[in-house]
Every structure is written in structure tokens, then in C-alpha cells.
């Protein structure tokens, strides 16, 4: 049983090491995803600005169509002035022309505003695109570094997993079942050292008779308080 307890203690060490490596890997994957999200956000903002330009272009086109229509109206009205016979009709047409010219001035001002807005947004897009190129380069370098670290961690995990498989062969199936259940229940820690009369898992004092039994290392003994498997480190070593 001493060898089995030693294997169990070693298995716990291996599993905790794998847990740590998995945690580091998860953190790196999270960092990688954050970098991807940062790129996606930058691209989405550029796309949104381009949509603004498209909308402004459509609005400018509608204003230019209205402007052309008003200019046609003025041309027709001015041609009609030559044919007018009465003062009253002349005044009415002149009023129409004056109103159309006022509207044209307003349309031209609105078109100019649209042009200025489009130019401003296009300048912003150009800057964002330049920033995006730089960001893509930085992210690519960071992603490569992250990937290298992930691969190194995966190599460590694979090595520990192989050792784990060999260690498990020494441990009875019933003990492995209990160990796995405790790992799930106790945040990954199923085997703990008993030291100076205490369980190092929950720091509770162990009954003297139970503590003395641990020195014999002839059975799987659990803490009466936290139910973790107890080992005397010097005994299993």
C-alpha cells in the first residue's frame, strides 16, 4: 500500500501541475481572443464610418438632384418672362424665380456641408486604416508569441499526461474513483499531507489514533473533516 499511496501523492502533484498549465493556457487563449476582438472592433469602426460616408453621399446626391431641378425651373421661368404681357403675371413669375434662387442657395449650402462632412470622415477613415495596419502588425507579432507559449504549455501538458497514465496503473480502480470524486469536490485537491497532527487540506486537528495509523501507510485514510485522502509525506517518500 505504501507504493500505492506514493503513486497517489505523485498523481496529485501531476494533476495540480497540469491544472496550472491548463490555467496558463486558458489565460493565453483569452489574451489571443482579446487581440482578435480588438482587431474586429477597429475594423467595425472603419466599416461604420464608411457607412456614414455612403449615407452622406446619397443625401448629397438627392440635394444635387433637387438643385438641378430648381435650376431647370429658373431657366424655364426666365424664358417665360420674355413672353409675359401683363405686369401682374410678370411679378408672379419674378417671385417664383426669387424663391427658387433662395432655395438654390440653401441647397448649395447643404451640399457644401455634406462635402465637408464626407471629406472629414474620409480623413478619419484614412487615419484609422493606417492605425489598423500598424495594429495588425503588432497583433500578428503578439499572436505568434502567444502561440509559441501555448505550444510549449501543450508540450508540458502532454508530457505530464503521459506520466499520469503510467502512475495511474499502480493505483487500484476503487481508489482512483474516490480520488477523482474528491478532486471534483475539493477544487482539484484530493490528496493532502498530514503534518504535526493536522490535515494540511483543512488545517483541522486529526484524532491521535488516526494520525498514528498514517505512519504505517497500510491503508487509504481520509480526513474526518474534509474527507481528503491523507498521506505522511516522509512515509511515502
TrEMBL record:
Gene3D superfamilies: 1.10.287.1490
Any coiled-coil regions, as ranges: 25-152
Entry keywords, A to Z: Coiled coil
C4-type zinc ribbon domain: residues covered: 199-230
InterPro entries on file: CT398_CC_hairpin (IPR056003), Oxidative_Scav/Glycosyltrans (IPR052376), Zf-RING_7 (IPR003743)
Annotated ranges, domain CT398-like coiled coil hairpin: 11-186
Protein name per its UniProtKB record: C4-type zinc ribbon domain-containing protein
Species for this entry: Geomonas paludis
